Amino acid sequence: MDIRKKQRAVVDALEEIKGRDIVVYNTERLSAYFERVIIATGDSSRQVKALAENVEEQLRRIGARVRGVEGSGGAEWVLVDLGDIVVHVMHPTARAHYNLEEIWGGKDVKMRRDAEPTPRTVAKPKAAAKARPKARPAAKNAAAKKKKKKTPLRARK
Q1: What residues contact residue 137 under an 8 Å CB cut-off, 6+ apart?
Q2: Other CB atoms within 10 Å distance of the CB of residue 35
Q3: pLDDT single digits (tens) 96-121
Q4: Is residue 38 situated within a structural domain?
Q5: pTM to 2 decimal places
């Protein structure tokens, strides 16, 4: 299954149960075990558990394999292992304490609704480029004024 489809399904499952501060990190170069880390916050232990259960349920529904779920007993921090994606659902105090963003937060993944790659071309608007007149640098203006003042009075006649 495509990694983009899986990460979109995880983010949708987290948003469905009102997960907060959802971030997706690309960890391909940091770990040989998984390619993405997704971190989300739930307001209470009950919500943290519900978020993790919803991720597990939604991913099984689309045919992805859930390799394991850890921490659902206390529900301060639940980890859902999807193989190439690891999902951390945390209580706000646990998230602040462990600060996983510092460990895995190398490169954010930009998400789109349709999970297609974004085009890299950026067009410059022509009107904006023509609107501003080009100013001469201050050094050239000052040098031009000095040249005019240095001419002797006899040469001006």
Answers
A1: none
A2: 20
A3: 998 888 887 655 566 555 544 333 33
A4: yes
A5: 0.66
For residue 146 the two structure tokens come to 């000095």
pLDDT of residue 156: 54
Region of residue 26 (left: phi > 0; alpha: psi -120 to 50; beta: else): beta
Same domain, 11 and 46: yes
Strand bridging mode 36-41 / 20-26: antiparallel
- Do the domain assignments include residue 99? yes
Q: Which two tokens stand for residue 38?
A: 């997704």
Q: Examine the domain organization and report whether 61 and 134 are in the same domain.
A: no
- Percent residues over pLDDT 70 in the chain: 66
Are 86 and 79 within 8 A, CB to CB? yes
In a domain, 67, yes or no: yes
- Give the Cα separation of 107 and 50 in Å (integer): 28
99 and 137 in a single domain? The answer is: no
Between the CA atoms of 42, 43, 46 and 51, what dihedral angle is there, to the nearest 10 degrees? -20
